[in-house]
């Protein structure tokens, strides 16, 4: 019977890990800094990744020297640091995506933002019908310019070619393994 309990606990923890989102570290090992002109821009990096509801961004920076602002498209395009939706200055900011749509981030220092320390992330809509969240409307000025910088790629994998969510495939596989083990145990 103890093998049965261990199997159930293992399956439970596997399901939890499948349901968790991916954390993307902005700027890689360098963190959230003014980008080097030779490096990949923050937005080029963001365009190569697929962000989903439940994923998060990790901004690492020196709190005495920088901060992160969540802004609208207009403040993003003009580097307006006085008009923000949210302000972060703890040096280790985790921002979780709870809805789909465009998210605009800039440095809290206007000079840094003017030097392209800014990022636009597009979070994909949840197509599983498990959420009633509607995608955010796209502002007229939402075409992001290619600015920013990141060196570290996340561990997130693209979805399977048939369009099925990798989380769903993983969960179904785990459930199948549990059911197979249960039928074998009894």
TrEMBL record:
Keywords for this protein: Cell membrane, Disulfide bond, Glycoprotein, GPI-anchor, Lipoprotein, Membrane, Signal
Entry superkingdom: Eukaryota
Subcellular localization(s) per the UniProt record: Cell membrane
Keyword Signal: yes
Lipid bilayer topology: Lipid-anchor; GPI-anchor
Gene Ontology CC, one term: side of membrane
Keyword Lipoprotein: yes
GO terms for MF: electron transfer activity
Gene3D superfamilies: Cupredoxins - blue copper proteins
Signal peptide region: 1-21
Phytocyanin domain location: 22-125
Entry's family note: Belongs to the early nodulin-like (ENODL) family.
UniProt cross-references to PANTHER family, sorted A to Z: BLUE COPPER PROTEIN, EARLY NODULIN-LIKE PROTEIN 9
Protein's UniProt name: (wild Malaysian banana) hypothetical protein
Organism: Musa acuminata subsp. malaccensis
């Amino acid at each position: 019977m103890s093998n049965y309990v261990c199997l159930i606990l293992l399956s439970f923890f596997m399901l939890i890990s499948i349901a968790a989102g991916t954390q993307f570290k902005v700027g890689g090992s360098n963190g959230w800094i003014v980008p080097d002109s030779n490096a990949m821009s923050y937005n080029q990096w963001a365009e190569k990744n697929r962000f989903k509801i439940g994923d998060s961004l990790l901004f690492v920076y020196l709190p005495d020297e920088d901060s992160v602002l969540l802004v609208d498209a207009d403040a993003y395009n003009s580097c307006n640091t006085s008009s923000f939706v949210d302000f972060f200055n703890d040096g280790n900011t985790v921002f979780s995506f709870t809805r789909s749509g465009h998210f605009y981030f800039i440095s809290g220092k206007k000079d840094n933002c003017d030097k392209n320390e800014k990022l636009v992330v597009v979070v994909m809509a949840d197509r599983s019908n498990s959420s009633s969240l509607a995608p955010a409307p796209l502002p007229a000025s939402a075409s992001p310019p290619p600015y920013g910088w990141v060196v570290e790629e996340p561990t997130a994998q693209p979805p399977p070619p048939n369009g099925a969510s990798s989380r769903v495939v993983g969960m179904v596989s785990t459930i199948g393994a549990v059911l197979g083990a249960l039928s074998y145990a009894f």
